[in-house]
Amino acid sequence: MSIDFSQLKRTPAYICELEKLENNLKILDRVQQESGAKVILALKGFAMHSTFDLVGKYLQGCTASGLHEAKLAREKMNKEVHTYSPAFKHEEIDEIASISDHIVFNSPSQLFAFHARVKEINPQLSLSLRVNPEFSSSPVDLYNPCGLYSRLGTTKANFDEKVLEHISGLNFHALCEQNVDALEGVLQAFEEKFGVYIAGMKYVNFGGGHHITKKGYDVAKLIEVIKAFRARYNNIAVYLEPGEAVGWETGVLVSRVLDIVDNGIKIAILDTSAEAHMPDTLAMPYRAAVRGAGEANEKAFTYRLGGNTCLAGDVMGDYSFDKELQVGDLLIFEDQIHYTFVKNTTFNGIPLPSLALWTKEHELKIVREFGYEEYKNRLS
Hints:
The model has no long low-confidence stretch (mean pLDDT 96). The chain folds into 2 domains: 129 residues, Lyase, Ornithine Decarboxylase, Chain A, domain 1 (Beta Barrel), CATH 2.40.37.10; 212 residues, Alanine racemase (TIM Barrel), CATH 3.20.20. The chain has 380 residues and is an alpha/beta fold. The N and C termini lie far apart (45 Å). Helix 3 runs parallel beside helix 4 and helix 4 crosses helix 5. Strands 1, 11, 12, 13, 14, 15, 16, 17 and 18 form a 9-stranded mixed sheet that branches. It has a 9-stranded parallel sheet with strand order 2-10-9-8-7-6-5-4-3, with helices on one face. Helix content is 29%, strand content 22%.
């Protein structure tokens, strides 16, 4: 059943549809059941912890990008916690070690600096090294972890075999919204450069960027690729850590038209913001889909959709509609649950969108609303 937007009393708001989220989780669980891999949630892409009871029914835990995400993973899901950072801080490493099951170091120097300390704090802790296979077909340089001069992961030239006595796993992350054929290319480069070390490992983490839940993704082939890799290395454990694939097409951002002005083109000013609420539409960039809208001039009435900040470039794009827009109309931005609210800001003092769930019982549940305090408390 479609969301009943009449139940929404305040905009803007992100609404996650729990049935769609569970459908994604079932696809990811199929990969686990048929390949033997473990799938963990990358919090950097999806961190709506009000859903973690559901997510935790299917996935094995979370991967965190530092102390705060690790704390969230431990507090709200309390399954496996894998913590990686490009560089750990001395003042945070003790707490990270105490709440993590795996720590992933970005460089041999960081591993050598911290391995004794973290194992003293948590003797059960598994340590691993992120490596850079120096291969990627990532479509956008901004999101290419294996691009030229990348700081992410240790290249073969910088690999120090002394790390082997301290680690039980190797990690790589080279994908961005890609299919399994891209993974095959990365795996070939990874095995060519680091294959000699894999036999001594307990696990290999294939990172994120796998677009597993997107229509057209070859899930069956992914399962076969994982099974073949595991068979080559004595049934080694494999992890995948998708973020976007968990939240993919699971919900919307609802906004309201506040005003309509004309400066050579009709401009609808909304109570949301590309800059503050949909940052990847400007950073990647990409065009967010709006429900019922077409390209400019495709339908009868064309409008430029603009955000409610003073940034001149806070614009979502030009869209056309069958009917004229009116002040007070709701506009629905599709697929806005991943890499949105995890990146939101209060730039210009603009309020953060509410967070809501659309339940299987067809009820809208407001999980969190934000106001002035969230803006004030980030400042001093």
